[in-house]
Amino acid sequence: MDIVIDFDGTCVTHRYPEIGKEIGATPVLRELVDAGNRLILSTMRSDDRKRRNRTLSDAVEWFRERDIPLFGVQTNPTQQTWTSSPKAYGELYIDDFALGCPLVFPDDGPPYVDWKQVRRMLVEMEILEDNNEQRTDL
To answer: Please, which residues have CB within 8 angstroms of residue 53's CB and are 6 or more apart in sequence?
Structure first.
């Protein structure tokens, strides 16, 4: 499955142009990749040489530092064979601004993705396995 992932407020807290704090995305993103899914980063961040802005590169580096491979950045590499649309195609989108995405509402800043709840949803959708489930079929 190709899964499109936002960055600020989704992988980290909102601190643009800086990188925000960890919010629990790393283990779930690794688990998604280990299960055979492909992650596509889709973010408002961009690089601008004239302004010496490397915010997109900073986000890509965040994934690299955590050993989370990205299949695509701002686009799905396979979609160019069937569309010229700039919107990254995926079967699932995880974004703090998406309707229905579970959020944490801290006292000191904007809401961000609740990865514990997202993981539960991924288990319910049978995208990830329930590690806490006791097997009775052995």
So the answer is: 17, 46, 47
Residues contacting 132, CB < 8 A, separation 6+: none
**Residues 3, 52, 15: CA angle, nearest 5 degrees:** 50
pTM: 0.90
Spatial neighbors of 1 by CB under 8 A, at least 6 apart, are 36, 37, 38, 90, 91, 92, 127
Domain chopping of the chain, boundaries = 2-124
- Rounded to an integer, what distance in angstroms lies between the CA atom of residue 94 and that of residue 119? 11
> Under a CB-based contact definition with an 8 Å cutoff, are residues 40 and 88 in contact?
yes
- Consecutive H or E run containing 92: strand 92-94
Q: What are 9-27's pLDDT values in tens digits?
A: 999 999 999 999 999 999 9
Can you say whether residue 95 is alpha, beta or left, with left for phi > 0 and alpha for psi between -120 and 50 degrees? Answer: beta
Q: How many other CB atoms are there within 10 angstroms of residue 19's CB atom? A: 19
The CATH superfamily label for domain 2-124 reads HAD superfamily/HAD-like (3.40.50.1000)
